[in-house]
Specification:
single chain, 88 residues, mainly alpha, globular
Length: 88
Amino acid sequence: MLTKRVKTKISSEHGVHDKDTGSANVQVATLTRQIEELSKHLKKNPKDNHSRRGLLKMVSQRRKLLDYLRKKKPADYEKLIKKLDLKK
């Protein structure tokens, strides 16, 4: 679970304005951070299947948002992929 401070930092880095929390860029960045945290947890606790399901849902949601960005805003998509160091 991300703290409020971490979420505001992510939204200020990736958002269009300070209070931007809903744009696809911010959502992808937030999901990426949550996925990283949950992956660390699952390495320590490999039998935690409930969290594994949540991780798969987050990965799927991020993939959908990235597909949307690739169609609608290709320049933003490329910049976000490089900034977050994700695979295409």
